[in-house]
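C-alpha cells for chain A. Residues wanted.
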C-alpha cells in the first residue's frame, strides 16, 4: 500500500554519508571498506547532507541494499532505532553500478522530510546545526595518551633530470676536463690530420650560472673632501686615458713588468728584476701615479692647512672672541736637500692655477756649504727652477737645472704653461713646464745680446703703442739689467733683446727725499749707467712704466718714447728693491730700499706720504695686500712686518719672526686671495703663512684707503693740502 511505501522511504538512508557507513566492500574475500573519517566517540550522524545527496529517495535499488532499515515513529524515541548487519556481499563494481541506477537529480518526486520526536514538521528538511544525536555508549572508547607513528621511506623516482655538462676548474673533476680538452687540442693539431670547420661542427658551449646568498651591506652617508683640484685632475685623467685608448688600443700596461726578451744564442743575458723596475720607474704613467699617491699621503698631514689655503676654512666675522692681532700662522714650507743653502731669487704664483708656485734659486751663497771637490764646486754654481704645488708641499712637481744661477722669473698670462727665466749670465729662456723634461721654447743668444749682466727683472707686459706692430701675441717680454738697460724681446724671428732705455747717472740735485753727502766729489765712478733693479708697469696708463735704480732714483718712462725718461725723483738713499702700485688706487706707489725704510708715494708729489721703518736694516721686499687696501707688508732681516694705514704709522701692527736668527729674507708676496703671505730666505726655504686676526675688508676699498691717508696726514697739513690738489680720489671734504 501507499502507507507502507511511505514508511519504507522514511526508514531508508537519506544521505550519501549514511549509505556509505552501512556499506561493506570485499575484494577477494578481504574487507577493503574505507574507514570512517568520524571518530566513534561522536556517534553516527544521519542528518547531515552533502552536495551529492539526491532529492528523490524512492529508488528501489538503493533500498534493497539495506536488509533491515530502522523504522521511526512518533511513539518510539530516536535512541531505540538501530541498524542491522548486511545479509549479502557486494563487490565494488556492483555497488557503483547500483548507485548509478538511482534517480537522477532534478526528479519530479517530492522529497520526504525527516521526522524527529518533538520537532514539528517544516518545509525545510535540513536539521538544526545546533542539534546532534547522542553517541552510542557501546561505541564510546577511551582515547589513549600514547600515539605511535611509523615512517617508511618510499622509493625515489625522478620526474626530470638534466645532467651537468660543466665542471669547476678548481676541483679535481674540472682539472681532468681541462686535461682532456688540451689533449684533444693536441690531437687535432697533429700533422696530417684533416679537420673541417663548418657551422654545424661548431662545438656547443654550455654555461652555468653560479650565485651565492650574502647579507645586505650596510650603507652610510659619509662626507669627504672634494675641491676643484680633485675634480679637475679626475676629469683630465679620464680624458687622457680615453685619448690614449683611441690612439693606441694595443699599448702595453704601464704598470706591469716589461716583456722579458728571450736570450739569443750569442747573448745569454736576460733582463734582471732591477732593470725591469728601473724601466717601470722611467715611464711617465708611473711617475704620474706616484705623484698622485704622494699627494694623497701629503693630504694626511696638511689637510687642515690645505683647506685654509683653498679658502674652505675662514675666520668667522661674527665670532665674539675675534681679536685684531694681525698674526701669521705657518701652513707649510717648501724645501728639499737640493735647495739647501741656495738663496731664493724670485717666486711667482701661476695666473691660471693659484696653487702652483714657481721658485728660482741662485748659487750656494754660504762657502761652508760648498763642496771641496771640483764637481761639487761646479754643482754649487748652477741654478734651479722648481714648481711647487699646494697639493704636496714636500715634493716639487717640476725641477729644472740650469748652468747659471737664476735672477728672476715670471709666468705668461696668455699661456700659463710658459715661464720666462732670467739668469746671471745674461741669458733669457722661455720654458714649457707642461712637460717633465726641460723644454726650452725660446732662448736668447749671447753673441747677439747687448748685455752680459744679470736680468734683475723679467716681466710679461701687454703689447701697446708702436711696439704693437711687431706683435704676434698679446704679450711681450721685458727685462731690466745690471748695466742699466731696459729691453724687450720680439715675438717673431730671432729671440734677441732690443734696447728701449739706457739709464744714466743723475748729476746734481733732483726732487725727492734729502740725500746724505758721502763726500764722493773726488771719486770717479767705474760705470756711468746705474743698475736697473726694479721694473713696474703702470696699471692704468698705456705704455707708462717705472724703473728703480741702484742710486735710489725712480724714472718715469714710456714705451712710446724710447731711449729717454719723462721725469725722475729720488725715492731712497740707496738701491731700490721694490716698486708696486696699489691694486685699489693706481695713483699710489709703494717702494722699499736699502735705506731701512718703506715709503708710500702719490703721483704728482715729490715728497713721500708715509714712511715706515723698524730696524737699521735694509728692507728686502714690500707688497700691498690684495684683500684690504690699507694693509701692506714688508720683509726686514728675518721678520715680516704687517702695517695698517688706518691704525698707526710709527710702528707695525704685528712683527713675526719667520727665518732663524742671522738668516735674511729675500722675497715677500701675498697670494691672489690675500689670505696668505709667502716669504723666502737666502737658505732656500719658502714659507707659506696664513693670516690670522685680520680686519674685515671695507665695502669701499678706495675710500677706506683715502680716509686712512687723510687721518695719517693730520699732522702734516701742508702735505695734505697738496695731496687734495691732485684731484680724485683725494679731493674729498667729508673726511
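Reply:
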Amino acid at each position: 500500500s501507499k502507507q507502507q511505501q511511505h514508511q519504507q522511504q522514511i526508514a531508508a538512508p537519506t544521505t550519501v554519508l549514511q549509505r556509505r557507513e552501512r556499506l561493506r566492500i570485499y575484494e577477494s574475500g578481504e574487507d577493503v571498506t574505507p574507514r570512517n573519517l568520524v571518530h566513534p566517540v561522536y556517534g553516527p550522524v544521519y542528518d547531515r547532507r552533502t552536495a551529492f545527496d539526491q532529492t528523490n529517495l524512492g529508488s528501489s535499488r538503493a533500498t534493497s541494499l539495506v536488509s533491515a532499515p530502522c523504522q521511526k515513529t512518533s511513539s518510539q524515541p530516536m535512541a531505540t532505532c538501530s541498524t542491522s548487519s548486511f545479509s549479502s556481499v557486494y563487490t565494488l563494481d556492483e555497488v557503483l553500478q547500483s548507485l548509478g541506477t538511482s534517480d537522477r537529480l532534478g526528479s519530479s518526486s517530492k522529497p520526504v522530510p525527516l521526522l524527529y520526536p518533538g520537532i514539528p514538521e517544516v518545509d525545510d528538511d535540513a536539521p538544526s546545526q545546533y542539534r546532534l544525536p547522542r553517541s552510542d555508549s557501546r561505541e564510546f572508547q577511551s582515547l589513549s595518551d600514547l600515539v605511535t607513528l611509523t615512517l617508511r621511506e618510499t622509493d625515489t623516482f625522478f620526474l626530470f633530470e638534466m645532467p651537468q655538462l660543466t665542471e669547476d676548474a678548481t676541483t679535481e673533476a674540472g682539472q681532468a676536463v681541462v686535461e682532456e680538452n688540451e689533449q684533444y687540442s693536441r690531437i687535432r693539431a697533429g700533422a696530417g690530420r684533416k679537420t673541417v670547420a663548418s657551422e654545424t661542427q661548431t662545438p656547443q658551449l654550455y654555461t652555468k650560472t653560479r650565485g651565492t646568498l650574502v647579507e645586505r651591506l650596510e650603507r652610510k652617508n659619509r662626507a669627504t673632501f672634494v675641491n676643484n683640484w680633485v675634480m679637475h685632475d679626475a676629469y683630465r685623467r679620464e680624458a687622457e686615458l680615453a685619448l690614449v685608448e683611441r690612439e693606441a688600443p694595443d699599448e702595453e700596461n704601464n704598470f706591469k713588468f716589461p716583456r722579458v726578451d728571450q736570450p739569443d744564442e750569442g747573448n745569454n743575458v736576460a733582463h734582471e728584476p732591477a732593470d725591469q723596475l728601473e724601466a717601470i720607474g722611467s715611464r711617465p704613467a708611473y711617475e704620474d701615479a706616484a705623484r698622485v699617491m704622494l699627494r694623497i699621503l701629503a693630504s694626511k698631514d696638511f689637510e687642515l692647512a690645505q683647506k685654509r689655503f683653498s679658502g674652505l676654512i675662514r675666520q668667522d666675522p661674527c665670532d665674539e672672541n675675534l681679536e685684531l692681532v694681525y698674526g701669521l700662522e705657518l701652513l707649510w714650507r717648501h724645501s728639499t736637500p737640493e735647495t739647501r743653502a741656495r738663496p731664493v731669487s724670485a717666486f711667482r704664483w701661476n695666473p691660471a692655477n693659484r696653487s702652483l708656485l714657481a721658485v728660482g734659486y741662485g748659487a750656494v751663497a754660504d762657502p761652508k756649504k760648498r763642496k771641496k771637490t771640483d764637481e761639487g764646486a761646479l754643482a754649487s754654481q748652477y741654478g734651479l727652477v722648481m714648481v711647487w704645488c699646494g697639493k704636496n708641499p714636500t715634493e716639487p712637481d717640476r725641477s729644472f737645472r740650469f748652468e747659471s744661477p737664476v735672477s728672476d722669473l715670471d709666468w705668461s698670462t696668455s699661456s700659463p704653461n710658459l715661464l720666462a727665466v732670467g739668469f746671471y749670465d745674461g741669458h733669457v729662456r722661455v720654458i714649457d713646464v707642461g712637460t717633465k723634461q726641460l723644454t726650452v721654447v725660446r732662448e736668447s743668444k749671447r753673441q747677439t745680446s747687448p748685455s752680459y749682466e744679470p736680468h734683475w727683472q723679467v716681466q710679461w707686459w701687454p703689447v701697446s703703442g708702436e711696439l704693437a706692430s711687431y706683435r704676434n701675441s698679446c704679450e711681450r717680454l721685458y727685462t731690466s739689467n745690471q748695466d742699466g738697460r731696459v729691453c724687450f724681446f720680439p715675438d717673431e724671428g730671432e729671440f734677441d733683446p732690443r734696447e728701449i732705455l739706457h739709464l744714466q747717472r743723475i748729476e746734481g740735485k733732483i726732487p725727492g727725499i734729502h740725500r746724505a753727502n758721502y763726500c764722493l766729489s773726488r771719486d770717479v765712478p767705474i760705470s756711468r749707467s746705474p743698475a736697473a733693479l726694479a721694473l713696474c708697469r703702470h696699471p692704468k696708463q698705456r705704455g707708462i712704466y717705472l724703473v728703480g735704480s741702484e742710486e735710489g732714483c725712480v724714472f718715469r718712462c714710456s714705451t712710446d718714447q724710447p731711449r729717454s725718461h719723462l721725469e725722475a725723483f729720488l725715492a731712497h738713499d740707496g738701491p731700490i728693491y721694490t716698486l708696486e702700485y696699489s691694486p685699489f688706487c693706481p695713483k699710489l706707489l709703494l717702494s722699499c730700499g736699502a735705506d731701512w725704510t718703506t715709503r708710500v708715494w702719490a703721483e704728482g708729489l715729490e715728497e713721500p706720504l708715509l714712511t715706515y721703518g723698524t730696524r737699521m736694516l735694509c728692507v728686502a721686499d714690500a707688497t700691498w695686500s690684495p684683500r684690504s687696501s690699507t694693509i701692506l707688508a714688508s720683509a726686514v732681516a728675518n721678520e715680516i712686518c704687517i702695517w695698517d694705514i688706518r691704525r698707526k704709522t710709527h710702528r707695525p701692527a704685528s712683527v713675526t719672526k719667520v727665518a732663524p736668527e742671522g738668516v735674511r729674507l729675500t722675497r715677500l708676496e701675498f697670494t691672489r686671495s690675500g689670505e696668505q703671505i709667502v716669504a723666502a730666505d737666502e737658505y732656500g726655504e719658502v714659507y707659506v703663512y696664513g693670516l690670522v686676526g685680520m680686519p674685515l675688508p671695507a665695502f669701499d676699498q678706495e675710500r677706506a684707503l683715502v680716509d686712512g691717508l687723510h687721518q695719517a696726514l693730520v699732522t702734516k697739513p701742508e702735505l695734505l693740502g697738496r695731496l687734495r690738489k691732485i684731484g680724485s680720489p683725494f679731493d674729498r671734504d667729508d673726511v
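The mean pLDDT is 78. The first strand starts at residue 26 and ends at 27.
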